[in-house]
Amino acid sequence: MVGFAKMGWLSTDNNKSLIMGDHSLSNSDSNNRKANQMGILAFETAKIMSRLLCLYKSLSNAEISKLKTEMRSQGVAYLNSKDEGFLLSLACAERLEDLDKAAAAVARLGHKCNDFGLNRFDLVYTDLKLGIIDFGKLEYGSKEIEKRVDKMEKLINATSGLYAALENLTELEISERKMKKWKEKKTAGQLQKVNCDMFNQRLEQQRKQVRQLREISLWSQTFDKSVGHMARIVCIIYARICVIFGPYIPVLPSVSLRNMRSSQQKEILKVQPENCLIEPIREQIISRSGPIPTTSKPTLVRFYSRKSIFFLCEDEGFGSEKLAKNNRVFHAAGPSTVGGSGLALRYANVITLVEKYSNPSESVDLNSRENLYQMLPENLKKTVRSKLSKNLKCMDEDESLAEGWREALKHIMEWLAPMAHNTINWQLERNLEKTKFDIKPSVLLLQTLHYSDKEKTDAAIADILVGLSCIYKCENRQWSES
């Protein structure tokens, strides 16, 4: 176990030089510091930092309040579940899974640190989950932590700027090599000489910008200093998760009120639910007609706070390596859910296209119409054909049905479209994670179509497609031939 005595980076008072930098370094210390600089690993570090700050910001009072409001929204309640405790347990599991991955990345960088606590951060993180570390020292939102967060944001922005500047410099240097080859073949005139001078001036300015950005970005930071920032934020985030979700997940380490500020004590008491009892998490979420049931027979699956596993059958063993291989929160969706059927992104694209085509100014060519239809699975194609045939016949007899479909389409899209957009955003955030330095709070799976009841979602999509067709017929907006 790694105690506080060996974790100076966690104590604000014991290691000011690590946090603020030591300006009284000897020549040998200065050389060692230069050798310990991050260099090219600055970009990987910036991405890890951005993931941590994204998690940090997602746990603010405003974001938690926004999450609870969205959990009560019509789309989430109708397609996913009305059980707030159950939905919060899903949110907790996903945030913890994201934190586990970020902590594993911090631990890998920690192997390059001189500080023992940072070098074995995997042990520190284990101690944290065992409840050995005093949570009273980990105050979310304190002035010291907010200063650290601001510092990390500036480092991320500078490193992002360096990344872009290096890309531009690479392009200029490629052009420089081409220009040298061209000059060897031809005798340059006065005009060409002027152009070359301007190019060389631009190239030198770009190199100067790169040097400046290297100095103020993570490139010139030491591993100990940068990993120290991240390690402390990991601990802050975990403590915050226990404060917010602890009342709903009793196996999380309890947070002692004794050593905390009065403002934090009020915050903890404010999130206490009237009833902390929730059903065990199932390995697969099986949704039938209606919200996700909580009365089906549970398997031997539950939260584990002492290992990096949160959805786990008892015969599978423990360890963060298994979690890295399997996104257990993602794969918790059963076959009767949209995500478990592998249709979440496809359905989201269908819904957004219907949203686009329902705009009165929008025209749809035959290829677009065919592409939209081909995006549907076979069972949904049959449902749409059957409903459309009945409704178009009825419309010939009663034109007022078109107005009813217009209202129905508007009403359904009000709660269905946001979930479709969240589904696409969730995918984009994961796909762009390796190339972006974004720190805004990310979407949770419970806000998407992933856990949605497939039967209900199919019915809703069939309704909006039939409604769209009826509106086109009523308004004489024929499918365009162009």
TrEMBL record:
Residues 337-424 form the DUF668 domain. GO terms for biological process: positive regulation of growth. It comes from the Eukaryota. Residues 40-94 form the DUF3475 domain. It holds the Pfam family DUF3475. InterPro entries: DUF3475, DUF668. This is Protein PSK SIMULATOR 1. It comes from Nicotiana tabacum (Common tobacco). The lineage of its organism: Eukaryota, Viridiplantae, Streptophyta, Embryophyta, Tracheophyta.
